[in-house]
Design goal:
Layout: H1 12-15, E1 20-21, H2 24-31, E2 40-48, H3 53-66, E3 72-77, E4 81-86, E5 94-97, E6 119-126, E7 129-137, H4 143-160, E8 169-170, H5 185-189, H6 192-211, E9 237-240, H7 243-255, H8 260-279, E10 287-295, E11 310-318, H9 326-335, H10 338-356, H11 361-367, E12 375-382, E13 389-390, E14 393-394, E15 397-400, E16 403-410, E17 420-427, E18 430-437, H12 444-468
Parallel strand pairs: 5-6, 10-12, 12-17
Antiparallel strand pairs: 1-4, 2-7, 2-16, 3-4, 6-7, 8-13, 9-18, 10-11, 14-15, 15-16, 17-18
Helix pairs in contact: 3-4, 6-10, 7-12, 8-9, 8-12
Length: 469
């Protein structure tokens, strides 16, 4: 039975849209969720300044009222299948504590959307510094949606703080837009002639995806028979490039008529080949695959509350192709152009919708432990562009009332046999790279070594081009 709905947080128009059917990708995230590999992701924010608890909590409530999927449960309707149901009485609370207090949940990292909403929050602060940790279920929203929620939270906080000269300008979040969150611009943009080409290209992509089974990232040899040690809640490893290094990377990409995303992908392939060669020398010429999330555009993106608007793109190369030569980067750049990314993103979603017509096909695909990708690389770009509000800045960093956002970062969920997942973002002029691991296959020292290998490879790319100028 659906929980009793208390709509005091929401106006009557918001309540009228629920129950709200899940989109194809939301269903996939729900089906792919499992206790050992939950489809959740962390987002951490670090501030200078002391958070006013009553103001922050009232701002949190206001932000939640703009983003109802974060206050919803996923239930099954006999007539409509999986639906979102408003559950305000189960809305997330904030766990407050001093630095060093454990960030965690007695239920572990998994969020059961049948009985718990898809957002958790912790605040740890002392002596004029604070860290806020959020945990989101990926069925409720993607990283961009999570950052949109954060932007509205900071905007509400800044508006409530007394004696602040600079005030934020929030953008609207219209709940009605959630009705179109699964309908993407690319659907209407395909004309009659190009539609036929897109279908054939999609079939070709599907054949390649099925026929080119990727290698897993090699384990760094946990002792046989030993269980993986318990890891800290939402454990994430990270490196931050200085502003000068970030600028060099931008120039390095531009010099080769490529984007930073192209460079990130090229160097990821290079270190995947190197890592697997070190831990499994002499293996055959394996396929390597990097999964990259693709932001799919709707006509209501500017007013869309936190939701899941992504699809997947897959880049697949033989290990022997992964060499530091101009032709390799050029091939990635051609494949990574916006038109190809969005076509492939639509192909993935269409393929999923077709599988829904075959009884049992979707659960079988979601529950398989087959390796879909060697790794995940999610490039957010400038994280501030997702905030959905115009916030004042101090020394190039976002300010909200008495707080200055010093740092913000996150990382994707970890799927079975995709043993390490990466995220890249830029904030305050500095680019960061974060990574999460599957502890059954990679030790903490191992994933630190993998991250260091990637960081050094990016530095080498930037330095080589800087020297050539």
């Amino acid at each position: 039975m659906a929980p009793r709905v208390d709509r005091r947080m929401f106006d009557s128009s918001t309540g009228s849209f629920f129950p709200l059917p899940l989109t194809a990708f939301e269903k996939y995230m729900l089906l792919d969720d499992r206790p050992g590999h939950p489809m959740v992701f962390p987002l951490r924010l670090r501030f200078s300044g002391e958070i006013s608890r009553p103001i922050f909590e009232s701002s949190f409530e206001e932000a939640l009222s703009r983003h109802p999927l974060l206050c919803s449960l996923a239930k099954r309707s006999p007539r409509r299948g999986p639906v979102w149901v408003l559950a305000e009485e189960l809305r997330p609370a904030i766990d407050w504590g001093p630095p060093g207090a454990v960030v965690g949940s007695p239920r572990g990292e998994k969020i059961n959307l049948d009985s718990e909403v898809g957002l958790r929050a912790w605040v740890r602060q002392e002596d004029g510094a604070a860290e806020v940790t959020f945990q989101f279920h990926h069925a409720c929203c993607d990283a961009g949606g999570a950052l949109r929620f954060v932007g509205h939270l900071l905007s509400a906080y800044g508006m409530r703080m007394p004696s602040v000269d600079q005030r934020p300008t929030p953008w609207p979040a219209d709940t009605a837009c959630l009705l179109g969150r699964g309908r993407f611009v690319a659907d209407a943009a395909i004309g009659k002639g190009s539609g036929t080409r897109a279908v054939w290209a999609g079939l070709r992509d599907a054949a390649r995806w099925v026929g080119r089974r990727p290698a897993t990232l090699c384990s760094n040899a946990l002792p046989a028979g030993n269980k993986a040690a318990a890891i800290p809640f939402l454990e994430t490893f990270r490196h931050v490039f200085e502003e000068s290094e970030t600028t060099k990377l931008l120039r390095a990409a531009a010099r080769q008529r490529a984007t930073v995303n192209d460079l990130l992908l090229r160097d990821m392939f290079l270190i995947l080949r190197r890592w697997n060669a070190e831990w499994a020398p002499g293996a055959a010429d394996r396929w390597l695959r990097v999964l990259t999330p693709v932001k799919m555009k709707t006509g209501d993106d500017d007013r869309m509350p936190a939701a899941n608007g992504v699809s997947y793109n897959f880049f697949t190369r033989r290990e022997s192709q992964c060499v530091d030569r101009p032709v390799f980067l050029q091939g990635i750049s051609r494949e990574n152009d916006p038109a190809t990314r969005h076509r492939r993103g639509m192909s993935f979603l269409r393929g999923f919708r077709l599988l829904e017509l075959i009884p049992g096909a979707v659960p079988l695909m979601a529950r398989t432990n087959r390796c879909f990708a060697t790794t995940v690389l999610s490039n957010l770009g400038d994280v501030g562009r997702y905030f959905g509000t115009i916030l004042p800045c101090r020394s190039g960093k976002i300010a909200a009332g008495n707080l200055v956002l010093e740092d913000v970062f996150g990382a994707p969920p970890v799927r079975p046999n995709t043993r390490a997942v990466f995220a890249v973002g830029t904030y305050g002029g500095r680019m960061w790279v974060s990574v999460r691991r599957d502890p059954r296959a990679l030790t903490a020292d191992g994933v630190r070594g993998l991250l260091e290998m990637y960081v050094n490879r990016l530095r080498k790319s930037a330095d080589l081009l800087a020297a050539a100028e």
